[in-house]
């Protein structure tokens, strides 16, 4: 049951006959009561004549997944199984961040027919969005009243991380191809693999000349190298307390996901195997043993549901998690935050265990606000803020120095710069054969 | 967009979450029964606790409140006196006419009493007791009696030969009256003022200046009870007249209610109904609320801001300036390609040598100066920035001197 604005207007119009009847209070009262009763009778008739929303059957069609920032089209098929047409206003009960348009949809479904409602959803938060019910308000022929019913109809839409950093992918892939088949300009490490022999052309590094082959063929022959393959990349994302911090309109965890996605896309093209772990005190997400397009699909799926938790990170368990994935040498990427020596004590205590067997990079998002505050010396408050920012930067640099002393690399950058910075670090390691 | 239906759609009735009216009624039966029961209990308690709640008019014969007069009325009834309550002059005169034999009229003076109608009432009774009459009422009753002002509320001795007063001996005195002519005064309070006055005549009228003599709360004090019973008891019937709204005469000037046209009140009622209906219209929720758990996010800069405020509030100037210095020295050392282990003095010396400034000056900026006020702090911070800018200007990114 619901009433409409027309019913209110009809009631209010009753003031005209009440005044027209005029001076006699008794007759005015009679008119008043008569009017109200008349309105109620009309309302009852209208509601009784409205098509029953209970006789509607609903079916949805909806994409399973949508990338954050893109539109999804939701369709609802309304079938009227009742004997009267249903003139209805329909509300789909999406959660607010599913980005459903606020306006309700108007539809008329004649008896025994079917109509389609199309709605564009633009979700503005990662994760799984749900709509558990659809509410239909069916108006009577006079539009005075309506019947209303809420009908269970389950809709689920998984909103995947946007992977905005994919714009950096083509340039990094080009750099990767340059590595391939190039003569090694570096001192040959154990990591670069022998690929083939070819004739010397000008510009090749003389150190690459294979003298034995040259002696056999009486022409200068160089060895070519290709980047090592089938290395393991283990990405560990910290989803605990510090990942909930919002930096430049992006939660730290989202930046971590962007960086992981870019690195994974790059590494899987370079024929390395990527494993992904999201941990705090327990494993929140895990993708292992996938390659190629399948890997990225699985990654975004796993990431979609992970939100930061306000608990302390359990670093002690991380070496065991990594050991479970691989016992061989791997490139372990720890995406976390390094802020103060106190807060990073857990990380620093387990790093030696990881650096003993693996190449480790500690990746941290830095806050561009700190840099900005450091340079703003306008007035007294700004100077104190600059001092505080300087202190924060000093703390972070002390932790970074400690991490480097243990033998891991530190990659840091603002939210926009971090994903390409991590990709560049990976390429540099690959070129150096350190993976 | 219209499709024909190929397959019969499955029955969706069980998916409807909104309960039917019938179901809703069945579910709410318990609460309806409970509230009806509660109302019944309240009504029963109300009925059992006496039909009138305290708060009727003062000296109301049915009121058990301290201000009421139920006590004396009940005692008189028990003694066989026929007590009739009246709330208007016409009711009182009807009661007097109906009474068989001698009857006493009690008049409680209040703002509704019309003094000019009192004389006709007085003529119909065999004796009259007027409680706490006002100036106008007194003038109407007898020209010999004048208002004497309020006494101090203490009981006074009877000191007169009115039988009821004599038996009472002492009684509470409220308002007092001065007398002349053949009126008799009792309970004097000095300089010719009396608490009770009896005016003889065809119908003797007794004026009692204090309502406390009859009120439930105070009737037991000193001789009040004896005085009240003595004044009211002698006749077979008693009419207790408390003037009320019913006394307001019809020919009074028209009230606002009478001046407004007849449609105003119904229109206002209609506005009220429309308002309630509009509330229902706007308040009807379009389906249940949708909940969404949102993740917590924290602004990252909060710790930095907090620390800045702490520095400022505790005026930790030296600490603040040292933080700035460490940063600046670090950057200068990097810029000048000094060893990572170079100490601050070495950096100061190198900076002074490069910029050509006095070494003592540069040392003061980088190491020695202690800010004594916030102005000093801002000044030092500016000097640090200036030094850094100079060094930046004089070197290229590799740390070599330009030129």
Provide an overview of this structure:
The complex is a heterodimer of chains A (435) and B (403). With 435 residues, chain A is α/β, with parallel strands linked by helices. Chain A has twelve helices and 19 strands. In chain A, 37% of the residues lie in helices and 30% in strands. About 2% of the residues of chain A have low confidence. By secondary structure, chain B is an alpha/beta fold. Chain B has 14 helices and twelve strands. In chain B, the strands form two sheets. In chain B, strands 1, 2, 3, 4, 7, 8, 9, 10 and 11 form a nine-stranded mixed β-sheet that branches. The longest helix of chain B is centred in the N-terminal third of the chain and has 28 residues.
**CA gyration radius of chain B, whole angstroms:** 48 Å
The CATH topology of the largest domain in chain A is: Rossmann fold
Order of helices and strands of chain B: HHEHEHEHEEHEEEEEHEHHEHHHHH
Shape of chain A: elongated
* Count of extended strands of chain A: 19
Broad structural category of chain A: alpha/beta
Shape of chain B: elongated
- Evaluate the radius of gyration of chain A: 33 Å
* Mean pLDDT across every amino acid position of chain A: 89
For the secondary structure, the number of strands of chain B is 12
- Assembly state here? heterodimer
InterPro entries (chain A): DUF58
Keywords (chain A): Membrane, Transmembrane, Transmembrane helix
Pfam family, one (chain A): DUF58
Organism (chain A): Labedella endophytica
